């Protein structure tokens, strides 16, 4: 009898038999999605949704390694562009001035307490620390014990000491990507690239500046300028605006401009509202230089610098004024601006009720700190929490 196709009933004299094809493919391994499609799906997860990124990393090692790859992290940052305020470092009074990382999101560094170190600056995912002497230790000079720390990877790079004939009486410094100021990096993925540390100090003879390069692991030859009639305010963070760093002097009437391209230092006037008040430099949305301060009426005032075609300061104008009394709790009297995270538009304000952040974009006010501190250093960076999960599996 002619054989019928599978699945048809045989009507012959023999007993009826049924045959079913393997239509469901139960013995086949389902095809995997290409990495490109998985990436497109994962790119849609917002950067502040760390919980979902972590769940994705735990699905399988393939996905974890995909999220941890530098190529994906680069595309992820290009898609979302804006980094996050992951926290800040506080040089706390109850620790003797040692730095502690205070998180504002889910990220936690491996070693949040930086014993024996004071945080001095943070930029482009790196933190500048300097070693401070314990009680009874011989003071070696803080400028001779600088390190750069990556809180996300916990890597750190000690810097060699500066070689100076004269003792340094007053100094400040900034850490930044090695290409900052020359426009060749968008700072979305400059880690773990090279970095620079710009050190500005005052000794008995002059004000000088020297730049450390991680590429050569050496300090540059110092450039100098005339001694100012003031001291650098090491408690106020410098600002990177355009191709220059800006440092404030203690009296609050002038600031120092350090041109990253020419290595030239110059002194600029700033608007004077009252003597010895605290002003904090910041980069504005247009890339220009601005200042933030709190006046006697608890108004947060943002100043913007207008420059001529030759680059000279023409004027300072108030670009924005916010009455903090309408935003802060009634018992929180605003005293001053302590720090600015200009990359994300967040200003730290010190009050008699602790430290609050004010988001310039959303208007949101959040209490973030209530302990005694000497300095606050915001830490802004992209963070992919699955990096460790991918490496540890």
UniProtKB/TrEMBL annotation:
<protein>
    <recommendedName>
        <fullName>F-box domain-containing protein</fullName>
    </recommendedName>
</protein>
<dbReference type="Pfam" id="PF00646">
    <property type="entry name" value="F-box"/>
</dbReference>
<dbReference type="InterPro" id="IPR036047">
    <property type="entry name" value="F-box-like_dom_sf"/>
</dbReference>
<keyword id="KW-0472">Membrane</keyword>
<feature type="transmembrane region" description="Helical">
    <location>
        <begin position="330"/>
        <end position="351"/>
    </location>
</feature>
<feature type="domain" description="F-box">
    <location>
        <begin position="33"/>
        <end position="76"/>
    </location>
</feature>
<dbReference type="Pfam" id="PF23635">
    <property type="entry name" value="Beta-prop_AT5G49610-like"/>
</dbReference>
<keyword id="KW-0812">Transmembrane</keyword>
<dbReference type="InterPro" id="IPR056594">
    <property type="entry name" value="AT5G49610-like_b-prop"/>
</dbReference>
<feature type="transmembrane region" description="Helical">
    <location>
        <begin position="371"/>
        <end position="391"/>
    </location>
</feature>
<dbReference type="InterPro" id="IPR001810">
    <property type="entry name" value="F-box_dom"/>
</dbReference>
<keyword id="KW-1133">Transmembrane helix</keyword>
């Amino acid at each position: 009898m002619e054989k019928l196709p599978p699945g048809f009933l045989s009507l012959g004299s023999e007993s009826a038999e049924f045959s079913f094809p393997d239509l469901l493919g139960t013995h086949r391994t389902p095809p995997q999605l290409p990495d490109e499609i998985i990436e497109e799906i994962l790119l849609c997860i917002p950067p502040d949704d760390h919980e979902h990124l972590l769940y994705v990393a735990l699905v399988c090692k393939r996905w974890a390694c995909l999220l941890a790859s530098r190529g994906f992290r680069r595309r992820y940052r290009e898609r979302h562009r804006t980094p996050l305020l992951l926290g800040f470092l506080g040089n706390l009074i109850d620790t003797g001035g040692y730095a502690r990382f205070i998180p504002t999101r889910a990220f936690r560094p491996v070693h949040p307490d930086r014993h024996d170190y004071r945080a001095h600056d943070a930029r482009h995912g790196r933190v500048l620390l300097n070693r401070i002497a314990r009680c009874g230790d011989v003071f070696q000079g803080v400028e001779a014990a600088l390190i750069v720390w990556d809180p996300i990877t916990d890597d750190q790079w000690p810097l060699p000491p500066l070689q100076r004939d004269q003792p340094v009486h007053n100094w400040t410094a900034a850490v930044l990507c090695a290409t900052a100021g020359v426009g060749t990096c968008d700072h979305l993925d400059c880690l773990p690239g090279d970095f620079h540390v710009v050190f500005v100090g005052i000794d008995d003879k002059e004000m000088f500046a020297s730049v450390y390069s991680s590429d050569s692991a050496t300090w540059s030859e110092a450039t100098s300028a005339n001694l100012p009639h003031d001291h650098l305010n090491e408690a106020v963070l410098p600002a990177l605006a355009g191709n220059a760093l800006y440092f404030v002097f203690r009296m609050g009437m002038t600031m120092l401009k350090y041109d990253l391209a020419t290595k030239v230092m110059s002194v600029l006037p700033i608007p004077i509202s009252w003597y010895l008040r605290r002003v904090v430099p910041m980069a504005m949305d247009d890339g220009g230089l601005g200042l933030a301060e709190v006046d006697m009426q608890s108004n947060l005032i943002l100043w913007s610098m207008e420059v001529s075609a030759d680059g000279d300061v023409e004027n300072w104008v108030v670009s924005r004024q916010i009455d903090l009394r309408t935003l802060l709790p009634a018992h929180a009297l605003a005293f001053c601006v302590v720090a600015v995270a200009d990359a994300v538009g967040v200003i730290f304000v010190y009050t008699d009720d602790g430290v609050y952040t004010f988001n310039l974009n959303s208007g949101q006010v959040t209490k973030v700190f209530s302990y005694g501190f000497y300095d606050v250093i915001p830490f802004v960076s992209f963070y992919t929490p699955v990096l460790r999960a991918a490496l540890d599996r």
